[in-house]
């Protein structure tokens, strides 16, 4: 005691930390001396304080509340009622965010704080601690934690709704889908959905159906007229605002050509031609296009948008996804464009089944007409590669490119850029030769490795046989024939010169054997007379 100089007994307790406590009276200012001593020495510390400035209140207790759909009034009691307290309330939001609310409102038997701006039908976790208002020293311990749920209210916002229309005989089947938009809140524990439809033109009696919270789609059958469809969420308090769709009058189906779109690491990128008449755009697609229940999804975009990156955890490489782009005005949607693409293209799963439809000694015609290029493929088929080579040697056919296999063997490669061209003729082959060949389809993801070949044997070239006949056999026959008819040919081509002794004139009666007679030139009428003017013979004559 600083003023009375009396020593006050202090009971020391050392558990987690050392403390000392004593009873106080009217005296408010104290001088505390703490001495610590061991065999090595002694240490002393002093502090002078006013006990009214060192108040550590007891924790608040007995919490209770009164709430509406957006407010909570929290009440509690304090043991130190003779001290003016300042309290702080901690509010834990559903998203994990912590808010602190200060309060000094104290009544005779309780204190309170009002928490406003809360969400309906939402759990909030609260606790309170207090400190002396006059001279703040430290907070009390926290009160017990209390979880409070606000009351229900009518659903806020609208449902995000969409449709899929299937023409049928005499009308249309409309499958309706809905989901909670980012701005929608159920604001209650028990929720259901009310679907209502009526003709948009003649104001006929509306039809409706109620569905529990486990449903997010339903199918209705309507006529060929234009219909107005509304979907509302309902809880124990009231309905939400209606979401409206206008189904147009049934007309002929407008066929649109599908445009190809490209995938990226983050999704599938889609662009479209914007038009100022529309107030929003919608893109829909199926997460599982190969299944009957394909899990239809849709996404809305602002009117000044002309592109979007569509992503989904369900997208996988090698699956073709189809997208439809709609323009919407006054709750009436019109199909604008169709797109199709892959998150990432993969090589084709199967090679074309090749048939030989024509084979000659120097060419082979191949066909794979049954090969599909539709959505069953793991990529867009961009064309085909035809690989060919003689079995016993590398290939070097005219008009081809070289393709080297991992074993360093060389194939001839031909490229077909049109995926619908499923026939090809390989020319400049050698006759009577065995060839190996394979046809590979390729996509934006490439093609599969070459593993198996098919084999063809080119026939012998009959034209060579004809040439052999012309160049060898025919001349040989001519030579043999000439040899056989040599005498006749000689007589025809080189006739013998007649001798007088063999002349037929000697067979006349005037000529007898052993007789001799000089035949005068005047006795004969020659066909031609040649006079040799050699000097010696002339003299002899």
TrEMBL record:
Keyword Repeat carried by entry: yes
InterPro entries, per database record: FN3_dom (IPR003961), FN3_sf (IPR036116), Hematopoietin_rcpt_Gp130_CS (IPR003529), Ig-like_fold (IPR013783), Type-I_Cytokine_Rcpt (IPR050379)
Cellular compartments annotated: Cell membrane
Keywords of the record: Cell membrane, Disulfide bond, Glycoprotein, Membrane, Phosphoprotein, Receptor, Repeat, Signal, Transmembrane, Transmembrane helix
Main location: membrane
A GO-annotated cellular component: external side of plasma membrane
Classification via SMART domains: FN3 (SM00060)
One GO BP: positive regulation of cell population proliferation
Membrane-spanning segments: 464-484
Molecular function terms, GO-annotated: ciliary neurotrophic factor receptor binding; cytokine binding; oncostatin-M receptor activity
Topology with respect to the bilayer: Single-pass type I membrane protein
Family note: Belongs to the type I cytokine receptor family. Type 2 subfamily.
Protein name, per record: Oncostatin-M-specific receptor subunit beta
Organism placement in taxonomy: Eukaryota, Metazoa, Chordata, Craniata, Vertebrata
